[in-house]
Specification:
- The complex is a heterodimer of chains A (263) and B (255).
- Chain A has 263 residues and is an alpha/beta fold.
- Chain A has a single domain, classed as Rossmann fold (3-Layer(aba) Sandwich).
- Chain A contains 8 helices and 10 strands.
- In chain A, the strands form 2 sheets. Chain A has a 6-stranded mixed sheet with strand order 6-7-8-3-9-10, sandwiched between helices.
- In chain A, α4 crosses α5.
- The longest helix of chain A is centred in the last third of the chain and has 16 residues.
- With 255 residues, chain B is an all-alpha fold.
- Chain B has one domain.
- Helices cover 86% and strands 0% of the residues of chain B.
- Chain B is elongated.
- The chains are: A alpha/beta (263), B mainly alpha (255).
Chain lengths: 263, 255
């Protein structure tokens, strides 16, 4: 594998009494698109939330969380140990947003603001002048095909997804984390947004995506990670895991052996 | 069953979270946008102004009425202005306003911030490097504290007017005489009690409203539960803090 963008070591998080994330070692390649696959509740979104450091709640850091998630950026002198950073450190370093973008499954849009303001608020809070922020917002909204004055309350499910993508890409992040970004979109929007994501990937961006859709994997996936019950069952280049991918979409999901170890 | 040890740990965590809310707001005092603070102040205080003023006017009248019945028995109905002004400024205006604000601002904070958490906005803000302390918490906490203080002053003024109206209409005390007596009865310590208590109550309401709003929640049921808790606990703590602060201020400044 080329240089990794994320290097995960001895990652363990007991999220609840009946679910734990346990990843002894996993590397995700830089400048490629990794697709995380698995059953519902296998830990895909939980892993993604740790890569983007948006896990847990704002007030309380999870206690039963240990290990390392290293972020290796181009031009950075040393890897950044993401789990060692506090909320305040993360804000000061502006890692989330401008460096690591996140598109959530539940979009988390700001309902009191229109589409443009949803995009400009983070830009302006990070110091971009209003006029420049509005230009960037217009470009991002054009890219996803959404009108600038639309109120969040009037957006359909698919339009909400588009605005969430626009809000993330307006900050031009080096790394983009996407949690089921193309679910619930109509076929026309789906094609356009998939092309947009492919374009963003082709620009040399590292992307990590959780999806259940074969077309997303075929169009975007370079690297695959299969998860089950909080553990990584299989990981590798898509070219090497073609048979497993076919079996996955045929309903034969890679599963942990009963002993708990990866098969 | 929850043991005593668990209860102490839970209490400690809650106290820590409440102090964190206040600490974060203090740290952001000069970093929050002033326009956000003014906007919140309008939403919290200006919108509650008619409610507080009308309620205080009637409260002033009813205290005057009740006091006059007792004072007439002792042949000194003119002392009604003294009684109404001192009890209003030191006790009724701060407590009365705080309880109204607990129901309005406290519930508003808990439900609004609760929706921010429940709908994933808080998580999205973290992912976009939007500082929740600066953008959401500090303007709301400061607006609640300053708003409670300003509304308490308004409540005291309107309560005094209520007493004056009743004194004039029912007891035949001229408004000028009533106001002279009312202001003469008030000492500086009464104003200290009024202002310090109103600020303290504002802090309590803001801390519980914000803390309950930003607590993790899984569904709308939890949102309702946390909002109710913010109002009930803040009201309860306001009444206890009233006694504590009054005792403390008298101990420091003398009666």
């Amino acid at each position: 594998m080329s240089t990794p963008a994320f290097r995960i070591r001895e990652l363990a998080w007991r999220v609840s009494p009946d679910f734990a994330l346990d990843i002894p070692s996993l590397d995700l390649p830089a400048k490629k698109t990794t697709v995380i696959l698995g059953r519902s509740a296998s830990g895909k979104s939980t892993l993604l939330s740790l890569l983007g450091r948006v896990e847990g709640s704002y007030f309380e850091r999870p206690t039963a969380l240990s290990g390392q998630v290293l972020l290796l950026l181009d031009g950075a002198p040393a890897p950044i140990d993401l789990l060692a950073l506090s909320e305040r450190d993360l804000l000061k370093q502006r890692l989330r947003g401008p460096t690591v973008g996140f598109v959530f499954q539940r979009e988390g849009l700001f309902p009191g603001r229109d589409a443009t303001e949803n995009v400009t608020w983070p830009l302006m809070a990070l110091g971009t002048p209003k006029a420049a922020a509005e230009v960037r917002a217009r470009h991002a909204l054009d890219a996803v095909g959404l009108g600038p004055d639309r109120q969040v309350a009037t957006l359909s499910g698919g339009e909400r997804k588009r605005l969430a993508i626009a809000r993330a890409i307006a900050l031009e992040p080096e790394v983009l984390l996407l949690d089921e970004p193309l679910t619930g979109l109509d076929p026309e929007a789906l094609g356009g947004l998939r092309e947009l994501l492919a374009r963003l990937a082709a620009e040399g961006r590292t992307m990590v995506m959780v999806t259940h859709q074969r077309e997303d994997v075929v169009a975007l996936g370079d690297h695959l990670v299969f998860m089950d019950r909080g553990q990584v069952v299989l990981a590798g280049a898509r070219a090497e895991l073609g048979a497993e991918l076919e079996r996955f979409f045929a309903g034969q999901v890679p599963t942990l052996a009963p002993s708990g170890g990866p098969t | 069953m929850i043991g005593a040890g668990d209860a102490v740990v839970a209490f400690g965590k809650e106290a820590q979270a409440l102090l964190a809310v206040l600490g974060r707001s203090l740290r952001m005092t000069f970093r929050m946008r002033f326009s956000d603070f003014v906007d919140q102040l309008g939403r919290v205080a200006l919108s509650a102004l008619p409610l507080v003023c009308i309620a205080a006017l009637f409260a002033g009248m009813v205290i005057a009425l009740n006091s006059s019945v007792q004072l007439t028995k002792y042949g000194q109905p003119e002392l009604v202005a003294d009684v109404v002004s001192v009890s209003l400024v030191t006790e009724l205006a701060p407590v009365f306003t705080a309880l109204l604000m607990s129901g309005k601002a406290g519930a508003g904070l808990a439900s609004e911030l609760g929706m921010v958490v429940l709908s994933g906005q808080a998580q999205a803000m973290r992912a976009l490097s939007l500082d929740i302390d600066r953008e959401l918490i500090a303007p709301r906490v400061w607006a609640c504290v300053i708003g409670t203080m300003l509304l308490t002053i308004a409540a005291a003024l309107f309560g005094l007017m209520g007493g004056m109206v009743l004194g004039s209409a029912k007891l035949g005390i001229s408004p000028i005489h009533y106001m002279n007596r009312a202001t003469f009865a008030l000492d500086p310590i009464h104003f200290v009690l009024c202002i310090v208590k109103s600020i303290g109550f504002g802090v309590i309401i803001a801390a519980f409203g914000t803390r309950m709003g930003l607590r993790d929640k899984v569904d709308a049921g939890a949102l309702g539960q946390h909002t109710m808790s913010a109002v009930v606990i803040a009201s309860f703590v306001v009444l206890i803090a009233d006694h504590v602060m009054t005792t403390f201020i008298y101990a420091v400044l003398g009666p």
